[in-house]
What does this fold into?
Amino acid sequence: MVSGRGIHPGFYAPHKGDTSGQIDAQALLSVTPPPQMPSTLEAGTIYGYCVGEPWNQQAVFKGIGVPVVTDYEIWKNNPEKVFGITAQFAEKYPNTTIRLTRALIRAAKWLDDNNNANRPEAVKILSQPNYVGADYDVIANSMTGTFEYEKGDKRAVPDFNVFFRHNATYPYYSDAIWYLTQMRR
It folds into this structure.
């Protein structure tokens, strides 16, 4: 397999006892928790990363990296995150499952209501130390419609994060299948 830019990311071969994903790899892919990506980049342990916000903005704010491209530029209004539970959990706790789903839908709608008017309040909550672990200004960029590609290169992207509009919370079966096949690949 060759990626769109000619880099061989490597293969998995569990049937041969290799689950490293490094067979014929030209790039080593590693797993790093998103909040640790900017400091790992700064330490020189990795040369780049693929992550959701606010960690790209954190790298810009620290002056250690710049986003090359955002998922918004690749696939506008894509399904970005998934809240998943097991079938066993849903069966054991059906009322909790329904309440969680309703709460997530209400929160998504609230975030998108009135042309994103509630986003600054959400950023204020999320920037508390016990949640995301990033400052208000870092979280606010993508949440409130501004994205900074490098120091001084700020661009308006009002729908960078969409939570409810455009059927963003609808669980399309086709999207799930596509994502699963791409992760497997």
Notes: The chain has one domain: 31-184. The chain has a mean pLDDT of 87. The CA atoms of residues 40 and 46 lie 6 Å apart.
